[in-house]
Amino acid sequence: MRTWTTDGQIGITRLPEFDPAKSGARNDVGQSVSAESVTVSKTGNYAVVQPTFEGNPHGRAHTSFGGPISIIDTAARDPLFFLLHANVDRIWAKWQWFQKRFDAASLTAYPFLGSATSTGATRIGHNALDTMWPWNNIIGHPRPSTAPRKPFPKSPVVKAPAAKPDVRAMIDFQGQLNTANQLGFDYDDVPFEPVAQ
Amino acid sequence: MTGKEPTLDLDDYRRAYAKELAGERRTVKAPPIKETVALLAKSGKTKRAARIAAIDAVAERALGRPSIMNALIDVLADPKDDPSVRRAALALLRELTFSATAFRRYDADFRAALRGAAEDPDEGLRERVLDFLALHKDEYAQRLLADGLKEPDKALVPVERALQMIGYDLHGDHLALLRDVVGAKPNQAVRRTALRLLAADSESQSLFEDIAADPKEDGEARATSAMALQSLDPERFAKVARKVVLNEKDDDNVRAVFLNGLTHGPAEVTDAVFGKRVRAVRYKTSSTQLRKSAEKYIDSTGGDS
User: Fold this and answer.
1) Cβ contact (<8 Å) for A31 and B136?
2) Model ipTM?
3) Which of A164, B55, B142, B295 could cross-link A131 (Cys pair, CB 3.0–4.6 Å)?
């Protein structure tokens, strides 16, 4: 990573506020990043799981360091950002598997089933029928002012997602309900276990 | 490979995982909100552990409850309160900023509390506060950090940390300060950080050239200087790099770094003589890293001899 350069700066500034030689990411006052089990064991709907999940482990993983990864504006400068978020996605996938939540039409799997203009919608880009930036090529507040790398590239092995993916397409990523929904990736500790229909 | 791949028994896997979850789960009953707010308001060293535990227990519900959020900010802002509890409050507040929309209403009060704590006697609190403010390009924090570099008795954090934080929002008027830091011949960690931050400074080209070329210099400092010089003046870098690469008395790791720079850099012109000598380096060196770098260079220049 010697040549890693972002925003014109060479190198990565990342200072753990815990002892990296020990597991648990526990800081000097005993606060720690939640174990996977805390999130996965939540039996409530996604609406119950998400707020805590976003705070801890996600937010707390970010802030268990000093440096750019610890705030939203600069977190992606640090390559660890991508590993952190891949793990967040893995924990979500593990919750889906353990709690059997793959039906994108069900509130138990995802609570915001409409679009940003629907009654009870959440912020734009987070409703099931919202297409996702940058692939939707929609710019301007609240989205960024540019949209690089659109549309979503076609896969040689799977049909999903569409050129402008929506949030709903992420729910049945394994193709549990319909193999056409498969996104073409998985996690090595999240098995494909058919959900009883 | 003989034998069948073992198949995963899904039922067993699920059962084993459920058992693992049951074993790890710690049910922490969150205290009532009013009780938590009252506990947080009790400043002083008594009940430190209870107050920190309350902060953790209330984390899931904090954002939806102004009474808790305000109590956390008040704890952070109170210079007389227990530093450990204040650090715990700060840690939770930092974490909650990742729910940006919900946190927005608390931004101004949080920022005011942070600024108030920027010169706190507690080193751990002070450093985290300044890091957060500096990342947000807070001018007050930047001023404090720059003052600390100019006058060491005003320093609020160690020099290397101050440099890193200033680096989050580098201004033109910081560059002279950074050159002074390098010139004062500090320890290597500080020097390396200052050199990294100077990477885009065109007035530092001669400094980078001198450091890159000197076998007596620290290897990391040389590598950083080389990258900076390459970015500012690729041809000037190439001249230095070739001498270093061909100097058998120089450090092999440094030679490899410089050769990689030539391989991937914009200014490399096919030079038959140099190419031939890089081949000789490839065969003569016992360093795996240098040999691989030489091979990449030769491949990239199309095998010219």
Assistant:
1) no
2) 0.90
3) A164
